[in-house]
Amino acid sequence: MDLDKLTIDSIQTGLRQGEFSSQELTKEYLSRAKSDDTNSFISINDQALAEAEQADKVLAEGNGTALTGIPLAVKDILLVKGLVATGGSKILENYVATYTATAVQKLKDAGMVIVGKTNCDEFAMGTSNENSAFGPVLNPHDKTRVPGGSSGGSAAAVAANLCPVSLGTDTGGSIRQPASFCGVVGVKPTYGRVSRYGSMAMASSLDQIGPMGKTVKDTAYLLQHMAGFDKYDATSSMQTVPDYVAALDRNPKKLRLGVPKEYFSDHLDKEIKEIIHGKIDELEKQGFEIKEVSLPYTDYALAAYYLIMPAEVSSNLARYDGILYGMRADKKLSLEQWYKQVRSHGFGAEAKRRIILGTFVLSAGYYDAYYKQAQRVRTLVKADFAKAFKEVDVLLTPATPSTAFALGEKTQDPLEMYLADVFTVAANIAGICGMTLPIGNDKKNLPVGLQLLAEPFAEEKLFSLGNFIEKL
Ligand code: GLN
Prior knowledge:
Elements: H1 8-16, H2 22-34, E1 41-44, H3 48-60, E2 71-75, H4 102-109, E3 113-118, H5 152-159, E4 165-170, H6 176-182, E5 185-188, E6 208-213, H7 216-226, H8 244-247, E7 256-260, H9 270-285, E8 289-293, H10 298-316, H11 335-346, H12 349-362, H13 367-391, E9 394-398, H14 414-419, H15 425-430, E10 433-441, E11 447-454, H16 459-471
Parallel strand pairs: 2-3, 2-4, 7-8, 7-9
Antiparallel strand pairs: 1-3, 4-6, 5-6, 5-10, 9-11, 10-11
Helix pairs in contact: 2-3, 5-6, 10-12, 10-13
Bound molecules: glutamine.
The site of glutamine has 14 residues, from strand 4.
């Protein structure tokens, strides 16, 4: 079995034509995952083979969906009943989930087999996967480099063929950035497109769950089954879910493409700039209408993100009090000492930094100057995109200012680290949808990603154009 080449379509064919069973396939992925040297997984699902056996039964009866029997890796931020869910944090080291996230349940209902839970930055806070309590993930393309974050394990697991597809979460780029660093496809759906029920909350107004895979089509298959209204998430949208898989074959040439000039500033690595411009030229030759547009508030989006996000983090992380979930303190302590002990030992440095920052920007006297001001900027960033999407259908931008950086390179300087998110956070601030896909390698042979952005609920445009670019 050549796992490197397997996609959902080719696995389906293999399964239905009896070339291999889901059990055989799952066994193969599990043995790879067990000897993995990228640290992509935090835990392996010991029920995986039983789930694959069940899928084989369904297939033998001639039933099932496009996803029946297909292995899936799930970011450890998402709950799967009966499996440990750490969120990348020591505070939840032994926490066993009591229910399953809706997005995961939908994929399970479609017949997918969960191979394991992937490594990530603590509570999804990070850009390099170095904030995980379970050690960093190594980039499969160069093990001295980071895979990106926070869904680093989900991206690396796909790139290293430890699973064919995976799930991540994206609050400020955590699907699109690691996908880009690891040379895979990642989709951040529109805010509200996928239920957040069962996803450990980082910043509730920004978080979205999304798919990662080797091809655009693989991500479309996953989103097709994950999306939709959920009564357990009041922010999930009631809009009907279109046929994303059918959208792949739609002619994308009617789409007007925009290139926002603010995304090609001096922050951007020269080689990435060249590769992206090369792709834009190719698209122009193919007959696409391409236009330069302006998103003047781009520079302020990052600052607004790093105020709104920690504010929400400080509130969401309050639930880890050593009583409700996970780590406990010594019983003889007073309540206050109890909190202190659990939270000082349970949280890593970055989680603490964001709780402190968030508490500060929400405090009396600073609320208006920071939090409220950031919300005003958010409105302006949103308006920027709304205006651009009157002129064009899809924006083409870099996904990251550099390709994968070295392990340890930015850990001493949080601001340096935050700057790596400069091209991805605006989509979350504005609630729009985005995708990154690999379009080449730099001279160090590291993958370069292209980001496609579209207005809310226009994921079909991303799939249609993404599929075209991938084939080009
Ligand atoms: N890198 C960003 C941060 O650290 C994004 C995280 C995310 O999308 N979960 O906040």
